[in-house]
Structure formats: C-alpha cells, structure tokens
Sequence to fold (580 residues):
Amino acid sequence: MSRAPVLEVDGVSLSYSGRLVLDDVSFEIGEGEFTGLIGSNGVGKTTLMRVILGSQRPNSGTVRLGGSSSAPRGSLLGYVPQKVVLDPDVPMRARDLVALGLDGQRFGWGRRTRQQHAAVEQVLHDVGAEGFANSRVGTLSGGELQRVLIAHALVSRPKLLLMDEPLANLDPKSVQEIVSLLHRVSRDHEVAILLSAHEMNALLPAIDRIVYLTAGRAASGTTEEVVRSEVLSKLYGHHVDVLKLHGRVLVVAEPGHERNDIPDHPPLTIS
Amino acid sequence: MHLLFEPGFFTSGPVHTAVLIGSVTALVSAIVGVFTVIRSQSFAGHALTDVATTGGSGAFYFGITPLVGFIGGGVVGAGAMDLVGVQRVRSRDLATGIVLGAATGLAALFLYLDTTTSATTGATQQILFGSIFTLDPSTVPLVAALSALTLFVIALVYRPLLLSSVSTELAGARGINARAVGLIFMVAMAVAVGLSSIAIGSILSTALLIGPAATSLRLTSSLRSSMVLASVLAVATTCVGILLAYDSSYWDPSSQGLPVSFFIVAITFLGYLFSGLPVVRRRVGRRRGDLEGARAVDVGSRPMSEGTA
Fold:
C-alpha cells in the first residue's frame, strides 16, 4: 500500500453470548481511501464498526487509528450511526446539528467563533445542504438527512469517516447522489471512508477498496481482488459464482447452498 | 372595584415574596421544561411531581419545611426511575408508572397522617395545590440558590444534553455518556418540580414545567428562542396568576379569594390552546421564513385557490 494506513484492524475476534461474531478480521484503510464494508444483515458489520469506534472491546486483536492504538479517537473519527430517528417537533435546524459536530461533547453553553461558523458554512456547502440548512432536522427527507449527518461527522475534520448503512432506506436516485458525494468528499477532504452496505453494486464505481464480510470472516482488497469466485467461495466455505452482467456483480450460490448471507439479492435458484 | 390592581398589591409583603419565588421557580421550570418536552419526558416529569408530593407530605408530617421534602422526594424518585430503566425507551413508561404508583400510595398515607395528626386542616391543599401567599420570606435565599444551581447545571451540560436529546446515537458517537447526561437532567427536573411545588403545589407543577415549554416550541424555530419565550411566558403567567388571585378576594368580599394555582394553570392551558390555532401557527411559519414554513402555507392555501378558479 502506497499511502500510510489510517486504520489498521489486526486479527480482531469477538464473540457475543457464545457466538463468534467476528473471526480473525484483518484489513487496512489508507489515507483518503473510500472502502465499502459489504455483507448482508447480521454478519457483524455494526459490531465491527463499534470495535473500531472503541465502544466494544474485541476478545483478541488490535485496532490502530492513525498509527496508535490508544490515541483519543474523537478527533480522528467521524461516525454516522445507522437509523438516526429525529423528531420533527424539536426546534433544531440542520445547521445547528452540524455545529454540534464541532463541539457537541464539550461542557458549557458554547459560544462559537467566526472560524467555527465559517467551518459550518463550508461543510454545508461541501455536502450540498445549503438549501435546507435552516429547516428542522426532523422534517428532512432521507437523502437530505444523510447529507446533514455527513456534514455533522465531517465538520471536525476527521481522518476517518465511519458510516453504518447510510444507503439503507434511500431511493435509488438518492443512493447515487450520496455515493458520488462521498467519493468527492473523500478526495477533496482527504478523509478515508468506511461505509457498510448490504448492496455493493451502487458502490462499485466509487469505492477504492472493499472489505467483504460474511459470518464474521473478512476478505479485503480491491474489488477485482476480492469479488472473485475463488476468494468468496473460500470465505463462504462453499462454492459461489461471481457473475458480471452489464457492469453489475451478482454473487450466486449453487443449488443447495442458497443462503441469506449473500448480499445484494435474496437467494437465487438456478434451474 | 379597581380596574386591575386592587389596593395593597404593591405594598403587601406576602405578595412580594410570592412574586419573587413564583417568578424564579417559573423561570427554572420553563428552561428545564423545554428539554423535558424535546426529550419526550413529560410523563417522567409528571411522575416526579407525584414523588415530590410524597416528599412534601412526608416532610410536613415530620415537621420539616415542605421544600426540602419536595426536592428530596423528587431527587430520590429520579434516581429510582433511572434504576428501573427510564432511559431505555421501551421500558420508560413502565419504569415511570411503577415509581409513580408507589410514590402516590405513600403520599396518600402521609397526607392522611398530616390531616389527622396536625391541627392544620389545609395540609393537603397546601401540598397538592400550593399556597404561595403563605410562604415564609426566609425561604427566598434557599429557593434562589437552588434555582441558580439548577440553571448552572443545565448550562454546564447544555451541548451534550442537546445532542443526546436529539439522538442518543449521535451523542454516543461523540463519546457522550447519554445515560449520565440523562440522569443529571432528571435530577435537574426533580429540583425544578420541587421548586415550583412550593409555588403552585406539587400536583400542578407539571403544568408550569410542560405548558410554557410546549407553547413556545410551537412558536419558535430555534431552541434558544424557545427557551427565551418559555421563560417569558412562565414568569408572566405566574405574575398575572398572582395578581388575579389577589384581586379575586375583592370580587366577592365574603370569600378569601381563589387559589393562585388555578389562575396559573388556566392561563397556561389557554396559551397552549391559542398557540395551536392554525392562524397563529401559520403566521409564525411565515415569519420563520424557512422552506418548511413556506411549504406549510402553500399547502394550506392551494386547495382554496384551485376551488375558486
């Protein structure tokens, strides 16, 4: 890898009430790289995010951020959680929520400096949220809210942005807009992005690397390196075919092995 | 009869004390109330008034000043609700209901003991519905100190409290301990409820906690303006309530005057109803000038113009 890694996940294993959720997961993310964390629901994507955030301790293995395993993570990490539900009756404007991304964890009433206001305006512009910056956050559409949440996470200039299923529940047009926005953001802000999704096709044109997760085990590399029959068959423990059709990728299990843990589509039967 | 101010209103010592304590406690209730409403903890706030009733009636029985009982009861109740799980959304109502039920049962016992063992027949009335004109001026410093402390604590945790009120997930992502912040807020809420209990009674203190806050949240577009408006409404309501109650003893010379808490709650309720009128909301929406307000106006007017065209 040419660029210095921002995130190094090394041999992370974690079991949860007797079940092995993460099984010796290792991968790296370089500076400014846009990485897709792909896997169907329940394979441990959110758990892996929590381990990287430091809110859950792995049973073994290490997570190093910016070359250190003990540095305070707040300043290096931006995080957009899954399913943020906001109340339309709360009088908080989109720009207020973005500003809390700068200092929401600090004590006190908080008077913001001119530079801080400028930083909020800049990031609102960068994510294309100026048009609804004064609307209440609870009244925003799914795509608008994602932009505001990205701005909230980005305004403190982290080195790594973790996004847990930001594309779920978005219409296809919004998915495309958010993906190309993130692609641009990772380049312009030199921020690495780790985005989890159960659908990889929308991401393929934008991402630099992929971490493919199934049943707690991971394979990582470029899309060409990972999304191949040999690699994924080894990961799943049974044979799967990788079909490339019209620029889309389909992972198909052979009959008898249709499972729910293949991303992108319900199990297919080939007759 | 005079038009507005009956004789002695500005010179009466009890009125001075009442206005002072009423205004200060209303201010605290309004500020804490805004957070109570946006955190959807109105029910928890109401449960705290019941626990405050228990504390107040218990204190009365043991000869302690009710203020100590109101606040002590509320704080213990806040801790109990936290232990039973008020912070998990799913068990929130259950935890609140359990604490509320237990507290009210105890309050029934204490109020019974208060009225049967003491010569004061007005104990129940005083605890539940307040008696602002009989407040001892010596409680003013304590009330002021507790109010200042509560406002200071809210200001101290303002940003983490705000973020965790909007979304516990976003707060957690910034390393904020939402549970700790929530517990601090519950204690602040207990003190606010205890303070307004001495003014308008423990049962009615919910009205001053929720009413001005809910009204101002309907009419403003930012949290800071909500807090300012809620404070103004709460203090004005309390002062007008005191004035009307004072005047009411002149309306019918044979009576002693009507209770302050009735007027305060009535004004609060009418204000909330008024703020919900479509014409008021639409004007505010237009003045707000944001997309959301403009859209609401559009949707409201379109069917009419289409019908006439």
